[in-house]
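[[Sequence with tokens]]
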Amino acid sequence: LCQIRHYMSSCSKFTDQSLIQRREFVKKFKHCFNCLSSSYSASQCASKYSCRLCNKRYHKTLHLDSDSDSNATKSTHTASVFDSPSEEIEVTSLFVSTTLRPRSQILFATAQVRIES
């Protein structure tokens, strides 16, 4: 990619490319998807490392969000305003759950509010 001798993951010409461009480059030049070496493919890679984001066998610079063990749910509800049942408001909520590391305790802050005009 560039003429400077360094790891490809440290190459600004590589890291400045879009994810699709980086993946295409690795495929086209037959680099290892796991360690980015140009000497062999991922099936021959002896590295014990994997993507830090999803633990799959490719380099973190090649991570696709769809590869994560994540679930996203979007729901829309219609609710009545407290004092005026004929008025309706739309409430949209987004819930995202992602497992990236070993499970640990996570606390979610919640609040109930009443909006009056």
Observations:
- The mean pLDDT is 73.
